[in-house]
Amino acid sequence: MRPRIIIVGAGFGGIAAAQALRRTEAEITLIDRTNHHLFQPLLYQVAGAALSPADIATANRALLRRNKNIRILMAEVDGIDTERRDVCLTDGRRLPFDHLILATGAAYSFFGNDAWRNHAYVLKSIDDALAIRAALLGAFERAEQCDDPAERQRLLTFAVVGGGPTGVELAGTIAELARTTLARDFTAVDPRRARVVLCEMGDRILNAFDPPLSQAARTMLESLGVEVRTGEKVREIDARGLTVGDQRIDAAAVLWAAGTEARPVATWLSADAARNGAVRVAPDCSVPGHPDIFAIGDVASFDDGDGPLPGLAPVAKQQGRFVGRLLAARIAGKPAPDRFRYRDYGTMAVIGRSRAVAEIGGFKLKGLVAWLAWSLVHLMLLVDFRSRVSVYVHWAWSWFTYGRGARLLTGYAPGPGEKPRAAVLPDIEAEVAAE
Amino acid sequence: MRPRIIIVGAGFGGIAAAQALRRTEAEITLIDRTNHHLFQPLLYQVAGAALSPADIATANRALLRRNKNIRILMAEVDGIDTERRDVCLTDGRRLPFDHLILATGAAYSFFGNDAWRNHAYVLKSIDDALAIRAALLGAFERAEQCDDPAERQRLLTFAVVGGGPTGVELAGTIAELARTTLARDFTAVDPRRARVVLCEMGDRILNAFDPPLSQAARTMLESLGVEVRTGEKVREIDARGLTVGDQRIDAAAVLWAAGTEARPVATWLSADAARNGAVRVAPDCSVPGHPDIFAIGDVASFDDGDGPLPGLAPVAKQQGRFVGRLLAARIAGKPAPDRFRYRDYGTMAVIGRSRAVAEIGGFKLKGLVAWLAWSLVHLMLLVDFRSRVSVYVHWAWSWFTYGRGARLLTGYAPGPGEKPRAAVLPDIEAEVAAE
Prior knowledge:
Two copies of one chain form a homodimer. Chain A is of the alpha/beta class and 435 residues long. Helices cover 32% and strands 24% of the residues of chain A. The first copy, chain A, contains 13 helices and 26 strands. A six-stranded mixed beta sheet of chain A has the order 5-2-1-9-22-21, with helices on one face. In chain A, strands 11-18-12-13-14 form a five-stranded parallel beta sheet. A three-stranded antiparallel beta sheet of chain A has the order 6-7-8. The interface between A and B is large, with 64 and 64 residues.
């Protein structure tokens, strides 16, 4: 009988593993809660109404069409039976495995303040991005109809918590949406007066970069009109804003990009976990004590001697390919590599339409040249040709016109905390009254 | 004081009226429940996962950016006070007008069987289209995981009620989705065995066309594998299928495209209404007894001597332009045209990837040549350049690959009857159990 491999999660890690196993004589099952692979580094552009979901996501079945040894299941896993070697699904089914690759990623963590989850938006899925888009566009539409100056200013205020790449990209894209795309489109309000606040607890934003690049990013954000606040802790988030340090900021939407937490794989396996819940893995990415169970990407904590690897797409992708090749070799009875080595091609963060910071192989870039490097890399990395063409068309068009093609408010975007919400505008009054 | 014009509805009629009034010295307010204008003739391609919402919709504010005399409100109207000449909004506000243009369109009518609304999908908005898309793609995903042969066949059965252009286009696009795009993508089920049933109560489909074209359309649909049933009435629609004539058809989704009903403008005005609820209007599109209130598009019943004009985009567009010009002339103190005349450039219906039927100025076309005419006309009509480029890229790509770029199942698509619904797959068991 051919060995059974189960891969849980169709992110960068899971897809890379499946692709590396394409020619292996095995029965592979890929399980994911959604039907698509998401190019997460561009998700903030869906939130910012510059791209459509289909520009950055591809159906798993389309992506893995050439993999004849794979079965794809849209389902949710809620446990692993390590004794019987079964993956347990939420609907009660059990799927037996010989080898297991866990690539379930991470979710946002509110550091114990779970009530904040109901008031702050996060950015992990397409639904999250569409919810943020609806909140942003809806706030301008409400402000246009609001007669109370204080409430109008609140509706034009957006707070982003967390000064990492996601927080920086979100703050930049909101500022540009307000100052360019929407600038001329309202009668009663001037979107250019929108206030975008980026709150970082540490003493500088983008702390994974060199301090001079952090400073350059801060200057670029400020030139877009973003108010950058560092060294202050968020004390409270509620339905009408947040408190940072001693200051109350009334806001239409609070976006949370401050910290992530691995999904509960360590609990499923009763395995040793790092502080963020990620499974501490061996040098071959296997879970100690379970040589046939591997954890990769954000759900794994891999120490390469320099501390744990960062939660980045290239880490997940390289680990997925490594584990896929390892299993392919093991199944073919060939010698398998025994130690994963991360190749760091550099990191980047983008700030608006034509500015970025990047550290690439010792080079430190900023401004337009960094942005050009960033857009080239992301265009090349996008998974299939169609997305590339479509993204290129949208970008080119946005570039020349400052227009955003995906400015659609549809009725069923979920609010923060993932509750589905009915049409955005008709219940303004009800909502304000209820608060 | 400049005259106040209110336009209700940003469909083809409302937008055309606003554009015709661009240079008029007036205070214009455009009210719509959504923030976007929708190119409805291509909506079925969003439902069929071939196009993204942003490809066929444009923000009203972007579309009317050059109109300096207009204010756009995202709000919902629920009445007209003809005495005080106020438009009443659902939030209690009242907006006074001197001239009023009602262009609120039509909704689907279930001919008194309102319970069916909870079980059948309709296609009027982007949310509707995304709900249909989720129902189609979700059904294949569920079938892939289903062990019961009867239930699996139900999950691969789709019924469309109504043999007009929308019904024909939906049936054709579902059949092609199953037979080409998805054909190779599943392991346990063969999507090519999906059953698509088109039910028409009358004795032929597309009864607005010449009988030979109806027959040609039927043959084309049948060659795509669609089962066309005519002359039978739908007796029941429930959560697991429908009954047509004497036959029970278990289906994963029932799509309703059988009849429309004008929105309640006639009731608001206590005006004379046609059978479908549309306001009977005078030759200048005004509502009899209210010379300053106009009704255009699907909400109006305009008799040009040959019976009422059909509910088509060109009728709404031409009436909008006519009323806009009439008001512009009246306000400028110039002689105004007093009689709307519809110019019929022809009608078309598309059946799948490269086939259509069309009647254009006496010419009757079918097959590829009709499809080419159709795609040219629709591409030219698409409202802005960006959409044209993007739609062209998607079409070209789909054409060469049979792939569909927008195959995304996201978690919050509403079910039929517009109830928001949680993630599509995890609750299969619960849902089946509850039925």
